[in-house]
Specification:
5 helices, alpha+beta, 4-stranded antiparallel sheet
């Protein structure tokens, strides 16, 4: 990407006037592959913002890669990337507000089930935005249009009305403990995945 002499001629070039981005030029290269995977075909897309005359770039070009299924028409595919802004904020909301990555689950199946609940919880907050009453904290201002985080903050009143399918809490007292004769199973343990790479220490040279 940093060497224009290696690009070659694009398979197709398309220009469009976008209401927000103004003049945009999209170039497409087909039948490319990764350096270490010659059998893995991909397409490269370059999105450029142009000035009013269409001959100068306003900002750095955006490079996109398409791998896998058949690519939509070039007139449509570049707009799909614009959805990433919303998706990135959704992932941040899952981690910060819905505590997606907080539970330390024991098996991959449990992790998958917990992850499957995230979209369902998001839709519940979306559907409940018209039936909840804003419950701001003392330092927060009241809003008419509630964000998903403010809806989650006000869901306590909804849960108090609809109840819960769980059983009533047991009275406080001494726990009966583990039943005699009931077999115990050890929890599955998995190796820790280290994301950081330890660099070798530099040897100090001593001048004699």
């Amino acid at each position: 990407m940093n060497e224009p002499t290696t690009w070659g001629e694009p398979a197709s070039v398309f220009e469009v006037d976008d209401p927000k981005l103004k003049r945009v030029r999209i170039s497409l290269w087909k039948k490319l592959h990764f350096r270490k995977a010659a059998t893995r075909s991909m397409s490269m897309i370059r999105v450029e913002r142009l000035d009013a005359q269409g001959n100068e770039r306003v900002s750095k070009p955006l490079w996109l890669a398409w791998v896998g299924e058949e690519m939509p028409p070039i007139e449509e595919v570049w707009r799909l990337y614009l959805r990433r802004f919303t998706i990135d904020h959704w992932y941040r909301f899952l981690k910060q507000r819905l505590h997606w990555t907080v539970p330390k689950l024991g098996t991959p199946k449990q992790c998958e089930r917990w992850s499957d609940l995230m979209p369902l919880m998001t839709w519940e907050l979306w559907l409940a935005r018209d039936i909840v009453t804003d419950n701001p904290l003392p330092w927060q201002k009241s809003f008419d249009k509630l964000t998903p985080g403010r809806v989650a903050q006000a869901m306590g009143g909804v849960f108090a009305v609809i109840g819960t399918p769980t059983s009533a809490p047991k009275p406080r007292g001494k726990s009966p403990g583990w039943k005699s004769g009931k077999p115990r199973t050890r929890k599955n343990r998995f190796p820790i995945v280290k994301k950081t790479v330890t660099r070798p220490r530099k040897e100090l040279s001593v001048a004699v």
